């Protein structure tokens, strides 16, 4: 039973493929439903892990990966469909590539990485999710959605994504610099 949260996370990762296919084929109603299902599974696996103390190191690693895969599939799929600008999809992708590359570099060059997302990073993720859902809602037959709201969310996501990426670079560069300089002063 304690592996249910990890299984839900793996399911979310697998949902990336059909979600990308639905977006590629303009099936926005089904893509919206699948994205909502993925969000509910994310909430459920988090609830179960906390409620029954089923947290695991593997789950802690896989959960953000699953979230990022789904978000990237949505941004790239919506850009491919012409619903979001390519520059925004590439900005979102670039930020995530920089974060992963920085984490790998830090781990290999400095030492073990114990990172927790910043408030700005969490805000960025929430805004990205809202933009994806708002865009899918706008494209679906389920409801009318004001285009100005999508434009506002688009601008907010662009600013938050850029700020969050720069924040990660600055914070972790400074941390790496401090750590490497403090190691030089330690006796061998």
TrEMBL record:
EC number: 2.7.8.5
Top EC category: transferase
Pathway the protein acts in: Phospholipid metabolism; phosphatidylglycerol biosynthesis; phosphatidylglycerol from CDP-diacylglycerol: step 1/2
Predominant place of localization: membrane
Gene3D superfamilies: 1.20.120.1760
Keyword Transmembrane in annotation: yes
Family: Belongs to the CDP-alcohol phosphatidyltransferase class-I family.
The protein, known as: CDP-diacylglycerol--glycerol-3-phosphate 3-phosphatidyltransferase
